[in-house]
């Protein structure tokens, strides 16, 4: 009976060790944004177009939105100089958080974001704090398009545009007459030489 208990206990122990070894070690860090820009809990985090994490929690602060980002693998190294921005994609304004590394980090084999000796001046470490930016946004596109259409509705703008076109036509006609006269004078001088 004792041997069976030891055998079952040993098998369970090695099974759990195997399962936990296969499981990746995740890490988290905080991102501060001025505006949520459509991100919610569960919003994907992408690096070079591949999903590497998601948003686990969000909190509204007095002057910002504080987001808890979870990266699925401690092998995903985010350099400190990376741009972290919200981007709206697709027709339904799905938001993602894009991480854009600016430089290649060559010493990634010797450093881990979950280690106690993590160098926070080079990479984003576990439980660190970074600032995020606003990237591509459909709301900005709609505002810009509205401003442009309002400019075209302005009668003063149309009058100035009409004057510009009229002046351009007069200048083009003057240049055309000048070119014709110049070519005519060149022909006369070449004929007078013979």
From TrEMBL:
It comes from the Eukaryota. One of its GO terms (molecular function) is phospholipid binding. One of its GO terms (cellular component) is chloroplast inner membrane. Residues 27-101 form the Mce/MlaD domain. InterPro entries: Mce/MlaD, TGD2-like. Keywords: Plastid. PANTHER family: PROTEIN TRIGALACTOSYLDIACYLGLYCEROL 2, CHLOROPLASTIC. This is Mce/MlaD domain-containing protein. It comes from Porolithon onkodes. The lineage of its organism: Eukaryota, Rhodophyta, Florideophyceae, Corallinophycidae, Corallinales.
